[in-house]
Specification:
The structure holds 2 protein chains of 2 kinds.
Chain A lengths: L5 E7 L4 H7 L15 H14 L6 E11 L3 E4 L3 E7 L8 E7 L2 H13 L4 E4 L8 H11 L6 E7 L1 H4 L2 H22 L2 E6 L26 H15 L3 H15 L7 H9 L7 E8 L2 E9 L2
Chain B lengths: L3 E8 L4 H4 L5 H19 L4 E11 L3 E4 L5 E4 L10 E4 L4 H13 L4 E4 L8 H10 L7 E7 L4 H18 L2 E7 L21 H15 L3 H6 L1 H8 L6 H9 L6 E11 L2 E10 L30
Parallel strand pairs in B: 1-8, 2-7, 2-8, 3-6
Antiparallel strand pairs in B: 1-10, 4-5, 9-10
Helix pairs in contact in B: 3-5, 5-9
The chains are: A alpha/beta, B alpha/beta.
The structure holds fe (ii) ion (FE2).
Chain lengths: 296, 304
């Protein structure tokens, strides 16, 4: 670890297991047909990886919608996560052997900062805990390897239990705590907010899930919302994104309701630099964008 | 020979009665009631347990567990400190295929799943471990589609009944669900657990009163109102499914075996046995759907 701790890069890194499936890595058991759906997103992730390879990170901090907690914000507190992850939603696509080092020290530091800021928190110490597929998928797609230690933060259900506004307030506080801990420990961090934008899925799947003829947005409303949010990202209007977040969530059942994007914007301190949109496309009808904030 | 549904149960969907009964008298009562239901099932001539669990959510239609011997473990997202749920269960794989086909015949998008390491949800594991500890009776489990509403769930229940009747089996249907589903969002001393609010408690008790009178279809018809008033678990889809599976009427002998909070939510153990002629004066307001016609590509409310 060299230099002062800081967030080097923040990435909106969606986690459809479809993208890992289409890439056919040796860790994933199912084999794809390579029929060609999701090409734009796969190319977007390629562009992202090429840029991230040139930077040095001590840690990847992921906020994931697929570790859902109602009682506070939870942090991975075991030194290594290893095992088989079978996606309960798309088990036909994702049965993945994973093995990742965990930065428990930073997880504990964020947990302590968040608790000091008044949030309910918990360290997760059960060695049998299975890492969620959102964390695995976004980490793999963003870096192409699992060598950098991770911190995984659960998605607290505050948006669902209280309101979108309450959720945003809480995620901004969690983001600020994340930033303080990273700076205190002197870590160079890559943040991953792993979520889709519009998030209404089709509830049916074609015989070949990778059939490009099937893949399209759920409806035009979803695309309009995604276009709008992406234009705000390109224009550096992160404050406005958070202002409009409750409407965005209601308007297109966005997966940002799980808090990841607001958390990351809060951690990055509402950056006004233009974000780089590496790719946008739909997966089973949901809108997904790969977006980078280069703070280096 | 035509098969039949010989009974039904409603059971909690959280792991506390299984993993930590010593921490709260209510959790222990729920566990004891579930074990008693298990003994009752053992005394019956049931040869199949069919579960709908709100903890197994799906997006692509409905999934049916078809691994004959799932042997894995699960750790609760919130309550990981309470330990690991290790399981070795017995599923009826041929019945899962039949069930899946019956649902497809009614227009539902379906598939069976049988993968090593597939995470069986904590609600199903807790239910099967306490109801059927020695795996004497094979089970079937279907997922809860997060976008489905009443019509689709009723169709799934009818398909469940179709499959049982075609199979000649004597089945018991089990809805694994919370009632009011507002959890405390802070760490509490388990000994201090209580229903989150008096209003949730009152609605739970009203629902349980109806179930105690065997009025399952009335409960199904009231599910939307219950969800609005008491933050019902997953729109109370499990009760829609149970009511449709058991034949859409009120003629049951019902008994509420336990009712207690689990981390603020309403948890109950309820038994239902068909008892013709028991209740009358039905008032059916909701539509009764026989087939699912597929995707509409419009947005409604947030999924649950
Ligand atoms: Fe997701």
């Amino acid at each position: 670890m060299t230099g002062p701790g800081r967030i080097v890069t923040g990435v909106l890194a969606p986690h459809p297991p479809h993208l890992v499936y289409a890439a056919n890595p040796p860790q994933n058991e199912p084999r794809s047909s390579r029929a060609g759906a999701w090409k734009g997103l796969l190319e977007g992730y390629e562009k992202l990886r090429a840029r991230l390879t040139a930077r040095e990170f001590d840690v990847v901090v992921v906020h994931t919608p697929h570790w859902k907690t109602t009682v506070g914000h939870h942090f991975l507190g075991i030194p290594r996560c290893k095992g088989l992850s079978v996606d309960p939603i798309f088990p036909n696509l994702f049965r993945f052997q994973f093995d990742l080092p965990v930065d428990v020290e930073l997880g504990e530091a964020i947990c302590a900062e968040a608790a000091a800021g008044g949030l309910v928190t918990k360290m997760m110490r059960n060695p049998d805990f299975r890492l969620d597929y959102g964390t695995i998928t976004s980490n793999y797609l963003s870096l192409g390897h699992f060598e950098t230690p991770i911190v995984a933060i659960s998605s607290n259900r505050v948006y669902f239990d209280y309101s979108n506004e309450a959720g945003d307030r809480e995620m901004l506080a969690l983001g600020a705590a994340t930033r303080r801990a990273i700076e205190k420990l002197g870590k160079r961090a890559l943040l991953l907010a792993t979520c889709s934008l519009s998030h209404r899925h089709f509830t049916q799947e074609p015989a070949d899930p990778e059939d490009p003829a099937f893949e399209h947005p759920y409806n035009a409303n979803q695309t309009r919302w995604d276009d709008h949010i992406l234009s705000l990202m390109r224009n550096g209007e992160t404050r406005r994104i958070v202002d409009e977040m409750p409407d965005f969530i209601e308007g297109c059942v966005s997966e940002t309701r799980d808090g990841a994007l607001t958390w990351m914007i809060g951690a990055m301190g509402f950056p006004t630099i233009p974000a780089i949109v590496h790719g946008y496309g739909t997966v089973i009808g949901t809108g997904n964008a790969i977006v980078e904030w280069d703070l280096s | 020979m035509s098969g039949s549904l010989i009974g039904g149960y409603v059971l909690p969907n959280k792991p506390h009665p299984l993993l930590a009964p010593e921490q709260n008298a209510g959790w222990a009562e729920l566990r004891e009631a579930m074990e008693e239901c298990g003994r009752e099932i053992a005394r019956s001539d049931a040869d199949l347990l069919l579960i709908f669990s709100t903890r197994w959510t799906s997006i692509i239609g409905h999934q049916f567990q078809a691994d004959p011997e799932p042997d894995w473990w699960e750790v609760d997202d919130d309550f990981h400190e309470y330990g690991t749920l290790r399981y070795k269960l017995r599923m009826d794989a041929p019945f899962a295929e039949r069930w899946c086909a019956a649902a497809r015949a009614r227009g539902l998008h379906t598939r069976t799943v049988a993968y090593r390491g597939f995470p069986i949800d904590v609600g199903t594991v807790a239910a099967l471990k306490l109801l059927n500890p020695d795996n004497r009776i094979p089970a079937g489990v279907v997922s809860c589609n997060m976008y489905s509403d009443r019509a689709e769930t009723i169709v799934l229940g009818k398909a469940t009944r179709d499959a049982v009747e075609q199979s000649g089996r004597k089945a018991i249907a089990v809805a694994v669900t919370s009632f009011s589903n507002r959890m405390f969002t802070e760490w509490i001393d388990p000994a201090d657990d209580r229903i989150h609010s008096p209003k949730d408690d009152e609605w739970n008790r009203k629902f349980l009163e109806l179930l105690g009178e065997g009025r399952l279809e009335d409960v199904s018809q009231l599910a939307r109102e219950f969800t609005r008033q008491a933050n019902g678990d997953s729109k109370m889809k499990a009760l829609w499914w149970l009511a449709a599976t058991m034949g859409q009427h009120n003629d049951y002998a019902g008994s509420v075996r336990a009712y207690a909070p689990i981390w603020g939510t309403g948890a109950a153990v309820v038994g239902l046995v068909p008892a013709p002629g028991r209740a009358g004066n039905l008032e059916y307001d909701e539509d009764d759907t026989d087939h699912y016609r597929g995707e509409r590509e419009v947005l409604a409310q947030q999924p649950s």
